[in-house]
Amino acid sequence: MQAFLNTAIKAARDAAGVVMRYSRRVHQLDVRSKSRNELVTQVDVMAEELIVANIRERYPDHAILGEEGGQQGHGDIVWIIDPLDGTTNYLSGFPMFAVSIGVQVKGRMEVGVVYDPNREELFTALRGGGAMLDDRKLRMDPKKSLEGALIGTGFPYRMNDKWMEQYLNQFRAVMQVAGDVRRPGSAALDLCYLAAGRLDGFWEFGLQPWDIAAGSLIVREAGGIISSITDDGDFMETGNLIAGPLKLHGELEKLLKEHL
Ligand code: IPD
Ligand code: CA
Ligand code: CA
């Protein structure tokens, strides 16, 4: 798995190079809308192509699930890629976006890499080997509780707007207990910030596998719990996520489910 991790890190840094090269002239990019509020540029596509080339060079037989390229090939080993998580931020010059690469083996996440090129922070995890921010091991506080906590979230601003009513009720309920709420705009980084203790909990509806593949392993390896808000599958299937350290996760889960 260490070799997969090294490849993922190299690929993420290469992709981040492309992302940053265009970051000061985003107004020159062609922006296309995939669906409501879902934007894509040639930077997303070029960054993903670079990641795929890195993987193909070493592992030509592995399957790839990329946000832009879709499913390529089948097999036990799947690389799950979001070449630019936080495209809306990127296009506004709001410096909160990242490259996310996860490796799944027989349905289980084994490797996670999220690279933030603005702060040059590298979040990594190997299943059973812990989670790291650069060379620092990450450990969440299992005794942290919801009262006074800083909670991260994502809004239902796209196709996930079918959850709007439930979400707004949940938002009110969380605001009444928590210390404050943040919506940074990159789910992959939100999960890493949770693992690093910069956020105490997180929830969002309608995420995609590439948003959460790497970040979910990083949270779990930092000692956190992730589950689905809804009961129709596990969180990778539903994309409806609650995440946090043990005690807070239980409290947040109870509160959110009261408003489903
Ligand atoms: C988005 C970001 C955002 C989340 C959206 C995602 P994208 O990813 O992670 O925080 O709220 O649901 O789709 O489209 O910028 O890669
Ligand atoms: Ca994304
Ligand atoms: Ca993306």
Keywords:
260 residues, alpha+beta, Fructose-1,6-Bisphosphatase, Chain A, domain 1, D-Maltodextrin-Binding Protein, domain 2, 2 domains, 5-stranded mixed β-sheet, 28% strand, binds D-MYO-inositol-1-phosphate, binds calcium ion
Briefly, what is this?
It contains 8 helices and 15 strands.
How would you characterize the overall build of this protein?
The chain has 260 residues and is an alpha+beta fold. It has helices spanning 2-21, 42-58, 87-92, 164-177, 187-195, 209-221, 235-238, 246-257, and strands at residues 32-35, 38-40, 63-66, 70-72, 77-85, 98-105, 108-116, 121-126, 130-133, 136-138, 150-153, 180-182, 201-204, 225-228, 241-244. The strands form 3 sheets. The protein has an 8-stranded mixed sheet with strand order 4-3-5-6-7-8-9-10, with helices on both faces. Strands 12-11-13-15-14 form a 5-stranded mixed sheet, with helices on both faces. A hairpin with a 4-residue loop joins strand 7 (108-116) and strand 8. Helix 1 runs antiparallel to helix 2 (42-58). 44% of the residues are buried.
